Amino acid sequence: MLGKPMKSIFIVGAGQLGSRHLQALKAVKSPLDITVIDPSALSLKIAQERYEGIAGEKTHRVRYLCEIPRSFDAVDIAIIPSTSNVRREIIEGILSRGHVQNMILEKLLFNHRDDYFRVNDLLESKAVKTWVNCSMRTMPFYAGLKSLFQGSQFFYTVTGSQFGLITNAVHYIDHMAYLSGELSYQLDSSLLDYPPIASKRQGFLELNGTLSVKFTNGCTGTFTCFREGASPVMVAIASPDVLVMSKEWEGKALISKKSENWKWNEVDSPIPYQSQMTSDVVTSILTKGTCNLVEYDDSLKIHLTLLEGLQHFLNGKSENKYDLFPFT
After folding, report:
1. Within 13 Å and on the Cβ side, how many CA atoms surround 230?
2. How do residues 105-141 score in pLDDT, each as one tens digit?
3. CB-based contacts of 57, cutoff 8 Å, min separation 6
4. Which domains occur in the chain, in start order?
5. pTM higher than 0.85 for the full model?
6. What percent of the chain has pLDDT over 70?
7. How far apart are the C-alpha atoms of 36 and 12, rounded to whole Å?
8. Is residue 71 classed exposed, middle or buried when 0-12, 13-18 and 19+ CB atoms within 10 A define those classes?
9. Among residues 141, 176, 142, 138, which one has the least CA distance to residue 156?
């Protein structure tokens, strides 16, 4: 009796995030043929050590390469966890050499405006179903809040110290879009701190201060990152009928409802590791042909409203004008 045919997975970029995606694949029950690609032999070695260091399925086949193969058979899923400045080149390189059925991209997507539209055209022409890894909508607790806030105006706040405001703002804006069913919003950058600071990822920038958004349907969000201290990240969402406070550092949340006389109830709200979430997303795509991540064309709109507003903020303050988005 023949075993199940192996599904083919590419991971292009074996750094911190890429290695976590690889670890996650070990929990996928169906046999996988995994190819990990990175120009850095050291990154590949670390990714291999992390993969082999955890328990999981023994049926997967894994190979490690320093460059994309010149040609390859159809790939079921390609995961691209690279930085924003090289992601378009990687996507074009893969799709010029073989067929990819599905793709998962990390945020922030690209650092040039044109890249968003050129990649969109390429993905459509090659019929590649593509999602962006804004993962709050896949986390059980955050996904479950949709039933509480759908159809109502809500106020969404995030506060914390040194958590990477811009790289994480897209997660919170995407979660607001998911809860509200609305993609269109305006950005207010007037309370951001200047000048920017160096990102943890070399060659990119970050910002502190407060960033605000207002969606067309009236939902409003503020995201505040303190430049100093160690305040943990807290997410709070309020509507006329529901209050939620998510204490991510404890894996607990408080929920208060008008229908229950505003009594506070504490619930578990664990934040899964990336190395847990990817296995669920990949399994869903392989078995159902879809997943709960945001689709590329929707994420394009969310990204560009954020990044164009931030570019305008920087260029209004800096003598040196930015012709790109210096974030990842």
Report:
1. 1
2. 999 999 999 999 999 999 999 999 999 999 999 999 9
3. 26, 27, 28, 29, 31, 32
4. 7-134+276-292 (3.40.50.720), 140-271+306-314 (3.30.360.10)
5. yes
6. 98
7. 6
8. exposed
9. 176
